[in-house]
């Protein structure tokens, strides 16, 4: 007899029941929060070791403002004796720069009014205002004697020294050719004598302190152009009036 059909019973399996989720933050976030808290405590400890007084904070703040072009003034008065704070030095530098710019404008106006563009030039650099004048416009040929026609020009220099607070360096220059003058045996002596002649006139007419002025002779050691022609040599034969803001190093 054929076997009876067996009855097959299917039992449906139940899905596994997951445990209920834990309440609160995930475990990793708790660890991260602990680490951040420890770092915060560490930096607070470092900060407590540092000397954070008001004067240092103001100086730091001023330095950062100066770096971004904002001028500030330090009023703490706690800097070392005979030294300027960065803020004070920056403020002084800014004031000196404005004074130099104003001086350059004044001299340019003088040059334009007298139509002296071919005889004088003026430029401003980081240290001061430089005025160049060819020696033929100030001295008699081959000498350190001031030409009477140069009095108006030198009187302008005198007026600046009287009215404005600048130091002055008068610098004499020659070309590369040896001097044929019987009085001055070298270009060193001639350039120095010409600078000294201008300086003596300025001191006599202005009455300023001799501590504010200097005379220097460079001979032919600092040419503006190569000494390759008579025209170039005439350019190199010059007297320079270099105005500088007051400085302890003058």
Would you kindly provide a written description of the structure presented here, covering whatever features stand out?
The protein is an alpha+beta fold. It has a domain at 92-244: OmpA-like domain (60s Ribosomal Protein L30, Chain: A). The chain has helices at 27-49, 54-67, 86-113, 151-163, 187-206, 230-236; strands at 121-124, 129-134, 167-173, 213-217, 238-244. Strands 1-2-5-3-4 form a 5-stranded mixed beta sheet. Strand 3, helix 5 (187-206) and strand 4 (213-217) form a beta-alpha-beta unit.
Keywords:
five-stranded mixed β-sheet, 6 helices, elongated, 60s Ribosomal Protein L30, Chain: A, 250 residues, 42% helix, alpha+beta
Helix content: 40-55%
Mean pLDDT figure: 80
- CATH homologous superfamily of the domain at 92-244? OmpA-like domain
Strand order of the largest sheet: 1-2-5-3-4
The CATH class assignment of the domain at 92-244 is Alpha Beta
State which percent range the strand residues make up.
5-15%
CATH topology tier name of the domain at 92-244: 60s Ribosomal Protein L30, Chain: A
The tally of helices reads 6
How many β-strand stretches? 5
- Major beta sheet, specifics? 5 strands, mixed
Gross morphology is elongated
Low-confidence blocks of residues: 74-91
CATH architecture of the domain at 92-244: 2-Layer Sandwich
Structural class: alpha+beta
H/E order of the elements?
HHHEEHEHEHE
Cα(first) to Cα(last) distance is 134 Å
Question: Rg to the nearest angstrom?
Answer: 40 Å
């Amino acid at each position: 007899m054929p076997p009876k059909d067996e009855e097959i019973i299917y039992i449906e399996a139940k899905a596994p029941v997951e445990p209920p989720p834990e309440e609160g933050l995930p475990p990793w976030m708790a660890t991260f929060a602990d680490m951040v808290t420890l770092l915060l405590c560490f930096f607070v400890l470092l900060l407590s070791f540092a000397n954070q007084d008001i004067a240092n904070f103001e100086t730091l703040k001023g330095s950062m403002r100066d770096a971004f072009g904002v001028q500030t003034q330090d009023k703490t008065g706690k800097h070392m004796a005979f030294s300027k704070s960065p803020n004070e030095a920056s403020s002084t530098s800014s004031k000196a720069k404005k004074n130099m710019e104003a001086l350059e404008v004044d001299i340019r106006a003088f040059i334009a009014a007298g139509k002296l563009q071919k005889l004088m030039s003026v430029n401003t650099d980081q240290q001061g205002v430089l005025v160049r004048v060819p020696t033929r416009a100030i001295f008699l040929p081959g000498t350190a004697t001031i030409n009477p026609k140069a009095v108006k020009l030198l009187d302008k220099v005198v007026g600046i020294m009287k009215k404005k607070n600048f130091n002055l360096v008068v610098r004499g220059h020659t070309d590369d050719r040896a001097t044929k003058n019987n009085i001055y045996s070298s270009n060193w002596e001639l350039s120095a004598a010409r600078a000294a002649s201008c300086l003596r006139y300025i001191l006599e007419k202005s009455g300023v302190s001799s501590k504010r002025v200097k005379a220097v002779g460079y001979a032919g050691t600092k040419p503006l152009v190569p000494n390759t022609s008579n025209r170039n040599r005439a350019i190199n034969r010059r007297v320079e009036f270099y105005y500088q803001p007051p400085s302890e190093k003058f």
